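Per reviewer request, we include the raw input and output of the structure prediction for the construct analysed in the revised manuscript.
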Amino acid sequence: MHVDFHTPVMVEEVLAGLDCQPGDTVVDATLGSGGHALAILNRIGQSGLLIGIDKDENAIALASKRLHAFKNVTIHRMDWRGMEGSLNVKADGFLMDVGLASFQIEDASRGFSYALDGPLDMRFDQQSPITAVALVNDLSERELGDILRSYGEEKYAKRIARDIIRERARQPIERTSHLARIVRGAVRGNPKKSLARCFQAFRIAVNGELDALRTAVEYGIQILRPKGRICTITYHSLEDRIVKTLFREADNSILNVLTRKPLTPSRHEVMENPKARSAKLRTAEKKDG
């Protein structure tokens, strides 16, 4: 069966940022379909170790298929918030690419895309009990507005929340197309950005993404060996703000921040892979001693 693997973002910049060397131990905390992992494995060689982490069972299956020829890979299905209690490792590199993978966006059954009709799911971990359906249909108008403002930075948050409440009084909101229709009716002008922000907001809320990101970055810094490096790729301001703050707080104490301003994809890469356009890469190095 043919598999269309997700195209990894800023691969050369990641390899340079991690400064991967033969024999290194590297944690890829967002394994996805294994694109970055494959490039890292080719740098660290057979004497190195790649530890891949993802909570999406589809990602685990894709990465396992892609990396099956490598014997120096261990793959763990877990939430970032479970790493500290489950992994006992010291690493030379720690990578997080926080973006959605193409195979997640393009699968209508996952509910991540406003452009595809499917169930309002939005879970990365399909075993998690909380879905977007539950949030959209159970939360109060105020709680809905808070999610849209806090996680989507949506200026029409209050109006959208009001219209969700009105619509669900008529019938449950269970499909992506239904939610998208409500958003389109609530905003003025071109609704595309509002649609993206609203779906982002509910996805973040369903998966607890921002709290998990904080936990993961803190853990990544903790497990690095002296001179080990942490690289993060984020795609919107909420994520980038968290990483920037955590790096700044650790700067000059246990970290040396190597990217005072985040790196962004080359013009050529964006032309080849438009989904990379909003990526921001930050790198820091653990101090020696």
